[in-house]
């Protein structure tokens, strides 16, 4: 908890460290009621800062009980140092020395899940960003890189497996039933990449032969009951290792790579050197217990953490303001990997839908910040969608501007130039510039200016001159601390469609010849016109293909034009996007009708468009499924000036029912065909099968709205007879959202009974119910909090129930009496004391109060005030609440 006034840390105050740590030798003595940590640090004055003086040495340390301290074998007494609840300060007498400390810590009662803690019966660590200071006194900053040797000692029968970073070098038995193991990491690393695990774990082992023919041992450790759910993660790991060699020329560098799955984990996973620690939800996957989405998430997270070995570990961040250096880049890398392993277009559609709904909302809210923030109170609050997802979009734009080859030249230079260093986003861009001989000065505004730029486009066709001009106007809304913005470099990938739907050859005025039918132009000014020549007939533009920049584009498309693009655009992503724009127009019309108290009338063009999608069996099923999915209520909220929760819900549900009524035979035909295939073929986690099941399941969810007995029978058949969690969970979810009360109750009970011993499946069971938009949602969630499988101490449970309710069940969360807000605030207050990082994350929906009507604004603000006044707040919660109210 915070005891002093929270301090704001500014990027502009960065200074290199006064001292460095060359060698770090750690010994952990793990016990049931405490742990002893001995640290020996071989230190010296940082030559970069050496000016003849010997400044005080200020070590970070929190919640540590100092038992012994010595410098160069001279024992230090309380007169030799100053101790506060966050620092240990002492005066070196020479410019190189060895510091020895012993501290006592209490992992057994660490509920914040940061530093060393227990998840169930196993010990594990989470040190990023600033958790190592809860383990020992240290220079806990990423620009201090050291070689680590770690010895772990624990009771043999409870903790047969003892792991840390690097290679195992020695082990042995001790008296009293204890044993020990020593690990040595030859690579210098910052403390945030340190890891330790001790537990009763089983592992699946494999071998990977690298491109230079070195053999690497791969091990995935899990609790014994999960040993049958590891193969998919192992396959994903091997694919990732091969892909990074092929696409980036990056090879793994140690003799062993380990992943450990733990149940209690604040995020998805952590890239500790050679010893990744994962939330079990991002490792365990098999057909019977994990959905297709979960399989894809495991593949993506395994890849993401593995890719960090180069983008993050070998080349790390100078300071935490540079977080996107490793995160934005690594998200881009994992997105490209997933695109190569599955369907590229579908992956892009999913990512863009997520970005537009969630990151755009963050960028428009009180916590908006640049990809490289200028300041923070609590760094844990900056593991955001902006740093990760928008950061990845920034790297994607560099890739688009330089082309695949130029980008690869840039990453080769970056890795070679900075191997073993802690660097900045500027260093990354500089490598791109130097390798390609380009100037990215203006482009770098993407790192420093927050907010989602708008790009308004106007067309002008001159039939006599045979020219077609597009005028782009960019602007960017003010964000906290940034009133004015300078123009961005916005790469716009585009094509011009002729009347038959073909891409016209594109030649800009002044160019000698046409350069293909798809190209990228760079909008760099506030207003800029591009004129295409040799254009005989007025074309239809397809703009920002693949979302080539993270901006909000507007062009005055008519609905018939959108339908034309849906059918003909050569860019699959833009075909989907045209469908989304059409749906948005139609839904916004319905929202208006609902608000005026008029009868709802759906534009039948949407039905026509959906009918042709369903009837055309030549189309990619995954694309059909994506295109049949209406924009979410959360997205409709994000694009509203003032979001009318009830009107949005009513309009969207009306559209869904109309689709179900009008296209029942087509939906049923697709459903039955795909369910028959699912029945006949055993589960496979491949893109083709994902596509088939996604279409089957979206069809079922529409069909169920009919309330027909034949659909109920089909749904129950799927629920009972399927061989995989994707079909079973969808069947359960549509039942839960239906009015078939008896069948619903029976299905929920049998599911819970069957999966009661599998916490990850129970998370799904909680989420499905938390997401049900039927009336009474809050009461259902409150009742579920008393279920024996629920606990506030497990972050996955909090996310599955409280998070799913507040983020995905908008009508119930935003009910007019404010009870949803009160519920969330109550739990944020409780979580603040247990686990500040989770408390702060769960707050996000309340921070969006400016989006709603006045009555709701007042209620939401009142809850934020109540949290602020609730007592001693963690810096995590304090920062988010105070910035939201500012
Ligand atoms: N680097 C970690 C995130 C750590 C978050 C700490 N609060 C996972 C990842 O992005 O790979
Ligand atoms: Zn990451």
TrEMBL record:
Enzyme class per UniProt: hydrolase
Claim: Metal-binding is one of the keywords in the record: yes
EC number per UniProt: 3.4.11.2
Alphabetized Pfam families for the sequence: DUF3458 (PF11940), DUF3458_C (PF17432), Peptidase_M1 (PF01433), Peptidase_M1_N (PF17900)
Domain Peptidase M1 alanyl aminopeptidase C-terminal residues, every copy: 560-886
Domain Peptidase M1 membrane alanine aminopeptidase residue range list: 233-446
Start and end residues of each Aminopeptidase N-like N-terminal domain: 108-193
Cofactor(s) named in the record: Zn(2+)
Domain of life: Bacteria
GO BP term, pick one: proteolysis
Keywords on record: Aminopeptidase, Hydrolase, Metal-binding, Metalloprotease, Protease, Zinc
Reaction catalysed by this enzyme: Release of an N-terminal amino acid, Xaa-|-Yaa- from a peptide, amide or arylamide. Xaa is preferably Ala, but may be most amino acids including Pro (slow action). When a terminal hydrophobic residue is followed by a prolyl residue, the two may be released as an intact Xaa-Pro dipeptide
Signal sequence segment: none
SUPFAM superfamilies for the chain: Leukotriene A4 hydrolase N-terminal domain (SSF63737), Metalloproteases ('zincins'), catalytic domain (SSF55486)
UniProt keyword annotation of Disulfide bond present: no
GO molecular function ontology, one term from the record: alanyl aminopeptidase activity
Domain Peptidase M1 alanyl aminopeptidase Ig-like fold: 451-554
Family: Belongs to the peptidase M1 family.
Function: Aminopeptidase N is involved in the degradation of intracellular peptides generated by protein breakdown during normal growth as well as in response to nutrient starvation.
Protein name: Aminopeptidase N
Species: Pseudomonas tohonis
Upper taxonomic lineage: Bacteria, Pseudomonadati, Pseudomonadota, Gammaproteobacteria, Pseudomonadales
Gene name of the record: pepN
């Amino acid at each position: 908890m915070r005891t002093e006034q929270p301090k704001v840390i500014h990027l502009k105050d960065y200074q290199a460290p006064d001292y460095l740590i060359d060698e770090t030798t750690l010994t952990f003595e793990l016990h049931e009621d405490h742990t002893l940590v001995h640290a020996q640090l071989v230190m010296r004055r940082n030559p970069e800062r050496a000016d003849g003086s010997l400044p005080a040495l200020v070590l970070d340390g929190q919640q540590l009980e100092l038992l012994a301290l010595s410098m160069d074998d001279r024992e230090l007494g309380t007169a030799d140092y100053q101790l506060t609840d966050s620092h240990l300060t002492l005066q070196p007498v020479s410019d190189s020395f060895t510091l020895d400390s012993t501290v006592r810590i209490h992992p057994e009662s660490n509920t914040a899940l940061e530093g060393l803690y227990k998840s169930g019966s196993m010990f594990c660590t989470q040190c990023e960003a600033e958790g190592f200071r809860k383990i020992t006194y240290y220079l806990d900053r990423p620009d201090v890189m050291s070689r680590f040797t770690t010895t772990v000692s624990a009771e043999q029968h409870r903790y047969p497996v003892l792991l840390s970073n690097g290679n195992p070098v020695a082990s042995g038995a001790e008296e009293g039933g204890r044993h020990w193991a020593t690990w040595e990491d030859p690579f210098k690393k910052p403390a945030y990449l340190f890891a330790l695990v001790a537990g009763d774990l089983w592992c699946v082992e494999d071998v990977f032969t690298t491109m230079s023919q070195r053999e690497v041992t791969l091990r995935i450790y899990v609790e014994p009951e999960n040993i049958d759910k590891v193969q998919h993660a192992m396959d994903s790991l091997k694919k990732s290792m091969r892909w990074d060699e092929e696409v980036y020329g990056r090879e793994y560098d140690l003799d062993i790579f380990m992943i450990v799955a733990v149940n209690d984990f604040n995020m998805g996973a952590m890239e500790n050197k050679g010893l990744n620690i994962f939330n079990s939800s991002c490792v365990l996957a098999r057909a019977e217990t994990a959905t297709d989405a979960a399989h894809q998430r495991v593949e993506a997270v395994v890849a993401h953490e593995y890719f960090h070995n180069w983008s993050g570990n070998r080349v790390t961040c100078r300071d935490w303001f540079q977080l996107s250096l490793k995160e934005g880049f690594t998200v881009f890398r994992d997105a490209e990997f997933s695109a190569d392993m599955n369907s590229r277009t579908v992956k892009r559609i999913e990512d863009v839908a997520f970005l537009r709904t969630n990151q755009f909302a963050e960028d428009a809210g009180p916590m908006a910040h640049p990809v490289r923030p200028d300041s923070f109170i609590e760094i844990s609050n900056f593991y955001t969608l902006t740093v990760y997802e928008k950061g990845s979009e920034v790297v994607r734009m560099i890739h688009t501007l330089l082309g695949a080859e130029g980008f690869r030249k840039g990453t080769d230079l970056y890795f070679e130039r900075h191997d073993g260093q802690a660097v900045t986003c500027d260093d990354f861009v500089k490598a791109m510039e130097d390798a390609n001989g380009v100037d990215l000065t203006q482009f770098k505004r993407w790192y420093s200016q927050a907010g989602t730029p708008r790009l308004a486009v106007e067309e002008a066709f001159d039939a006599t001159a045979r020219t077609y001009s597009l005028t782009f106007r960019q602007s960017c809304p003010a964000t906290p601390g940034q009133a004015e913005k300078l123009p961005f470099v916005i790469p716009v990938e585009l094509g011009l469609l002729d009347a038959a739907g073909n891409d016209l050859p594109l030649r800009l005025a002044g160019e000698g010849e046409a350069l293909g039918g798809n190209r990228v132009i760079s909008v760099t000014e506030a207003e800029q016109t591009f004129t295409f020549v040799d254009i005989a007939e007025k074309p239809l533009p397809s703009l920002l293909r693949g979302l080539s920049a993270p901006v909000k584009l507007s062009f005055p498309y008519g609905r018939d034009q959108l339908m034309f693009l849906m059918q003909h655009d050569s860019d699959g992503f833009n075909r989907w996007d045209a469908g989304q724009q059409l749906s948005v127009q139609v839904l916004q019309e319905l929202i208006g009708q609902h608000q005026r108290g008029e009868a709802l009338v759906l534009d039948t063009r949407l039905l026509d468009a959906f009918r042709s999608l369903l009837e055309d069996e030549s189309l990619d099923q995954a694309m059909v499924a994506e295109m049949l999915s209406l924009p979410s209520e959360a997205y409709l909220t994000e694009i509203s000036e003032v979001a009318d929760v009830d009107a949005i819900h009513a309009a969207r549900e009306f559209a869904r029912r109309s689709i179900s009524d009008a296209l029942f035979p087509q939906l049923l035909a697709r459903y039955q065909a795909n369910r028959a295939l699912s029945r006949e073929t055993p589960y496979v986690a491949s893109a083709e099968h994902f596509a088939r099941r996604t279409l089957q399941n979206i069809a079922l969810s529409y069909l169920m709205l009919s309330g027909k007995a034949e659909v109920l029978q089909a749904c129950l058949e799927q629920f009972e007879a399927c061989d995989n969690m994707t079909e079973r969970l969808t069947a359960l979810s549509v039942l839960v959202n239906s009015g078939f009360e008896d069948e619903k109750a029976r299905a929920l009970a049998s599911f819970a009974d069957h999966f009661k011993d599998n916490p990850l499946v129970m998370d799904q069971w909680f989420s499905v119910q938390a997401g049900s938009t039927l009336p009474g949602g809050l009461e259902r969630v409150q009742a579920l909090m008393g279920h024996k499988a629920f606990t506030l101490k497990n972050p996955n449970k909090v996310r599955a129930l409280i998070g799913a309710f507040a983020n995905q069940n908008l009508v119930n969360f935003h009910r007019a009496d404010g009870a949803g807000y009160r519920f969330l605030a109550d739990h944020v207050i409780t979580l603040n004391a247990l686990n500040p990082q989770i408390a702060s994350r769960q707050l996000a929906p309340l921070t969006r109060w400016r989006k709603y009507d006045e009555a709701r604004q007042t209620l939401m603000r009142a809850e934020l005030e109540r949290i602020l006044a609730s007592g001693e707040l963690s810096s995590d919660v304090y920062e988010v609440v105070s910035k939201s109210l500012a």
